[in-house]
Amino acid sequence: MNIEGMNEGFFPKYSLLDKLIGIGSGIAAFVVYYITLTPSIPFWDSGEFVAASSILGIPHQPGSPFYVILGRIFFMMALLKDFAGRVNLLSAVASAVTVLVSFFMVVELIRILVKNDTIPWYGHLAACCGAIAMAFSYTYWTNSVEAEVYGTAGLFISLCLYLLLVWFRNPSRYSLLIVIAFLLGLSISNHMTSFLIAPAIVALVYIKLYPRIGTKAFFMTTGFVLVFFLLGVIKVDFVVEKFMNIVVLIILSCLIYSLYSGYSKKEISLNELRRFFKISLLSLVMFLLGLSAHLYLPVRSNLNPRIVNESKPNTWTMFWGFVNRQQYSQTSMFERKTDLSIQFKKEFWRYFEWQYFNPSKVNNTFKILMISVIIVLILYGVVSPLFYSIQDKSPPSDERRLVFWLNLLLFLLSTIGLFVYLNFSAEEVRDRDYFYAPTYMFCSFFLSIAIFYVIRMLEDRIYQIAGGAVFSILVLLGAASWWHEHDRAGNEVAADYGRNIINSMELNPVVFTNGDNDTFPPWALMCAFYYRPDVRLVNLSLINTSWYATQLMIDEPVTPFTMTKEQVVKLDEDLLHKYTATDWKSEVRRGEWGYSKGHVFNVGKLKLTVEEELMLPMFRDFMLFSIIEASMKKNMPIFFAVTVPQRNMELYHPLSRMEGMVSRITQEPLPDDFHMIRLISNAGKYYNCASLQDPSVFVDDETKRLSINYSIGLKKIADWGYGKGHYKLALRALTKAAQFKANDSRMRLVISIDLVRSGAIKEGQGMFDKALIDFEKEMTAKGVAVNQIKANKVFAYAEITNSLGLFYKSQKQYDKAKQAFNQAIQTFPYYNQAYSELAEIHVLQGNYKNAITILEKYLNQEVVIEGRIPPERVENMRRKLEEYKKHVSEVIPEKNDSASKADSLKKG
């Protein structure tokens, strides 16, 4: 039965049941997204998108202009109280609508497969299962509860594919192709991800219009592309460098050849050829119209939006480089950044395992079984339309074969194609599963087809109902297994983190930040909430560019520089020319741009000494010198966020002191690397970390890594308090640090050991036991050798026992202290602090000989003699030993002399 022409009208007609299930699926998804929505500012790019949307700014390349415009609309709508939450809501709405559209898309697929408008009940069930599986897959759900472009990208993908299937059923509706072209252009203005489906759409349109010629052209194109891909693999330079351009030329050449061949053989009439070019031209025009949203970038950039105006694309050169993402390294996909096996296991397979159920909540056998079933179903969903078409001995024009080609192209483009193109390194700064978001969408569609055919094969209605129930339960349980990890209700960790950085500083500061997560939350606060507009935030990654430095010169509040705009631009050009024109690895590092160890920079009152041999200064270094010197002249406070690696502030490290979430740059070196009064004040008065202390809030690994800075500051307070005898202060700081559920196992071990040292013995030992179990699990999961894990555990036991000894020593309970230190030594025979403290207690009790014996025992150990203990530790112990021996040699003779005099008196 040929279904072309069915359901006359622009869109197909749907039954009430279709509408109820489709709309119900979308509403159900939205309700879940709304309940689990991030209430305020998120980490990573989401924080930047909140900032950009709030002021119509320009985020990182390629800018996502259409998303920013939509984000601004949601920002202005008073749907939620929190401004950032409103922008997050855009993703929830877009993703929920995508679920709705995806349901009807699968319904259209099944209609084609059964060659009828009326589909069986399990067709609706299969479509619903696929939509729900997609809605609550790991990556899709993550991108639906925070400000990200992938929710809107999914909407564009589903709309285009839905319209393509509608067009399959009524090919005379060419207006649908023109709408698809417009949506594809507009989708690029949101994010490039959506354009992944363009090759599949073009190929399917051509095959549908001219079956014989279209199929021939498709195989010709595929063959040529495969040949050139293999040439790239064997490193033919021209192909490696120009691969994408060559592919485009191949496609155009095959298209023109097939049209000419069809026309010359009278397989295509002149009228058909004219109509083809007319539709192609109109589609191109509409595609460019959708693409024209990019004009927002130069127009808005020229108006200098405050803070978020990345790369400043207000000239043709800057604009073209911006949309082509020139700031990112353009590594050829043929030059793999790491081994293929590593890329596959870590950056593809690992992400796939997360999608449809939480593998951490099941045993390994069930995990393998479930993943195997899912893979089989996905592959079956891809090939089953072709299989049943061949089984029925249908002609090549059978629509099911068209569905197969669509499935196959989407599968290949989103798996092998994306994997090869993305070319991830072995150590990405974060998990990159979001790049595969379309992959998991398509896999959900394939699952729908597979579920439909599996239930259909059961034939008996009872078995069909049982099969439908099993699939439904598995989909719902898989979705439910990820609830905790995706529930962001009450999660204000990023917003608090940004506030705590800003609130660590007094008025009118300059603060240098390092990356996304110490920059974007403060940006969002300053842009969306107009919070602390006096802060001058300088990102160390961006300050390596002249456009950012000159932008800081005009943004209010203006960041001071000792250089003019012209001098900054000239310096950037000079350095760029010098570095690119010279082999800097050999010549420049020893030339005029290099600085040898001991070189002194004078920046205002600062004297900064180069500590590394032949340091090569970057453009960033000159900008820092200029900003710091100018700020000091104006008596403005200068800070580095604690997240800045020491290598990025190495020259300034001797002049920095920690004051909370920031370190202040002083004009003279200080005896300590912290300012205890301000550290205590910031930690006690300003820090709001309620989300990190809420057991219902899920904290991922990256948040743990960032949040550990709170515990580090509190531990400094505790160490200082303990050293000064302020034990209550130390205990309060440690108790607060222990409340952070974001602490990883290592930090919890450190805190538990310090708690014991401060007298909270029961609490500390309880925390220690749990942290040690988690530590062992984490190390095992990372593949750390068993003997190494065991050694770490032994040392941890020695540390907490030693800590107990320190507490008893502070309380002058010397017998208990000696017992604890002896136990620490028995646990770990090379623990130098336990030997030192034990010897000191014997000295306090006047028993120098025992103290000498203890130190000699330590120094006579084989590992000490062989030099396997750090020399400074050994030297300290030797100094103590000599001190004790000297004391004994001075005291004992004096006692002997006194005894001799007494004997003489008795004899006299």
Description:
- With 908 residues, the chain is mainly alpha-helical.
- It has 36 helices and 7 strands.
- The strands form 2 sheets. It has a 5-stranded mixed β-sheet with strand order 2-1-5-7-6. The protein has a two-stranded antiparallel sheet with strand order 3-4.
- α2 (45-55) runs parallel beside α22 (520-528) and α31 (786-810) runs antiparallel to α32.
- Mean pLDDT is 85; it is low at 1-7, 581-594, 898-902 and 904-908.
Please describe the topology of this protein.
Elements: H1 16-35, H2 45-55, H3 65-76, H4 83-114, H5 121-135, H6 138-142, H7 150-169, H8 175-190, H9 198-209, H10 211-233, H11 237-264, H12 270-291, H13 296-302, H14 316-323, H15 340-354, H16 364-391, H17 399-422, H18 437-458, H19 461-480, H20 483-486, H21 493-503, E1 510-513, H22 520-528, E2 536-539, H23 546-552, H24 565-581, E3 600-603, E4 606-609, H25 619-633, E5 638-641, E6 656-658, E7 662-665, H26 676-686, H27 701-723, H28 727-738, H29 745-757, H30 761-781, H31 786-810, H32 814-827, H33 832-844, H34 848-859, H35 862-865, H36 871-907
Parallel strand pairs: 1-2, 1-5
Antiparallel strand pairs: 3-4, 5-7, 6-7
Helix pairs in contact: 1-4, 1-5, 2-3, 2-4, 2-22, 3-4, 3-8, 4-5, 4-7, 4-18, 5-18, 5-19, 7-8, 8-12, 9-10, 9-17, 10-11, 16-17, 16-18, 17-18, 18-19, 21-22, 23-24, 26-27, 27-28, 28-29, 29-30, 29-31, 30-31, 31-32, 31-33, 32-33, 33-34, 34-36
Which keywords apply here?
908 residues, mainly alpha, five-stranded mixed beta sheet, two-stranded antiparallel ribbon, 36 helices, 65% helix, 3% strand, globular, disordered N terminus, disordered C terminus
